[in-house]
Amino acid sequence: MFMERFFISTSEKPPVTAMVYALGTFDGVHLGHMQLMREAIKLAHERGAKAGVYTFDVHPLAVLNPSHAPQLLTSLDDKLKLIEGAGIDIAVVQSFDMALAGMSSKGFVEDVLLGTLSAEHVVCGFNYTFGRDGGGTAGELVTICARHGIGVTVVPPVSEGATVVGSTAIRAALADGDVALAGRLLGRLHFVRGIVERGRGVGRSLGVPTANLRLPEEYAIPSSGVYAARAHWGDRMQATAVCNIGVRPTFGDEARGVTCEVHLLDASADLYGEILAVEFVARLRDEKRFADPADLRKQIASDIEAARTLVDAGVYTQCHLC
């Protein structure tokens, strides 16, 4: 299905609108977001109408407090593709600026939900905030919208085991290297995309050539360590992989900063300059310093077999974008 996308500034109105909108930043498009969208789609279908998502082009903190803006789980393009895959008809992407940030809660409902979107019903999460300084709560949204004849559905928390699903919880899992938990909260494997650059040839010297990824700094990656992964490139090419994130202490590369190196299993390709997507399946071990390259080579062989076993087991949900 095709989703219409409209990118608007504060003073603009999309040429086509929906009757029911799910509201949120939608970073990561995780299980909680999926529940919001399912509810919006259900309500829209009951009305014989289209279901929409209203979101922002950047994380609000990137404008309000850039030094405290969180690393993103998805790019805007991937976020919209995931929203489209959920079955949404219309996505309205608002340019987040100080004019929007300065709106009162009442002004947001009247100017945006009514004036811009012509919404008849909106769906939000239990912890949704809006208006100046994020002072409006989900409960306040219900109250203000009721005065204007707009229905509101507040979706309760979605949990995975003992963890409430949320973008912050997913970032915390990645920071701990727990990519398995991050994947369960997302409802799919966490992935990153980067451009393959030429490295120092260290992996090749060990008999395990690697693709060295240049990753945008604003996106969340797992903590330093070695991971079982799936790699995707070109026209639906893919391979099981071992991914090392870290500073390569065995070779004294700490000063070069964190790198992301991907070794493809059972595949060889000249990927320089290409975009490579890496899905993280499981953490294998911490990065560590080896006294001798031969010891590292032996450990890598063990990592490869462990990665092959984990990826072949298939106990995960692959992202349809990769």
Features of this protein?
322 residues, Rossmann fold, six-stranded parallel beta sheet, 10 helices, 2 domains, 14 strands, six-stranded antiparallel beta barrel, 31% helix, Elongation Factor Tu (Ef-tu), domain 3, alpha/beta
What does this structure look like?
The protein is of the alpha/beta class. The protein folds into two domains: 4-157, Rossmann fold (3-Layer(aba) Sandwich); 189-313, Elongation Factor Tu (Ef-tu), domain 3 (Beta Barrel). It contains ten helices and 14 strands. The protein has a six-stranded parallel β-sheet, sandwiched between helices. The chain has a six-stranded antiparallel barrel with strand order 9-10-13-12-11-14. Strands 7-8 form a two-stranded antiparallel sheet. The longest helix is centred in the last third of the chain and has 21 residues, at 293-313. The model has no long low-confidence stretch (mean pLDDT 92).
Q: pLDDT under 50 segments (min length 5)?
A: none
Strand content: 25-35%
Under CATH, the topology of the largest domain is which? Rossmann fold
Shape: elongated
The CATH C-level name of the largest domain is Alpha Beta
How many structural domains can be distinguished in the coordinates? 2
Number of continuous helical runs: 10
Explain briefly what this protein structure is.
It contains 10 helices and 14 strands. With 322 residues, it is of the alpha/beta class.
Task: Chart the SSEs and their pairings.
Elements: E1 4-8, E2 20-23, H1 31-46, E3 51-56, H2 60-64, H3 76-85, E4 90-94, H4 98-101, H5 105-116, E5 121-125, H6 138-147, E6 151-155, E7 159-160, E8 163-164, H7 167-175, H8 179-186, E9 191-197, H9 202-205, E10 211-214, E11 225-233, E12 237-246, E13 259-264, E14 275-285, H10 293-313
Parallel strand pairs: 1-4, 2-3, 2-5, 3-4, 5-6
Antiparallel strand pairs: 7-8, 9-10, 9-14, 10-13, 11-12, 11-14, 12-13
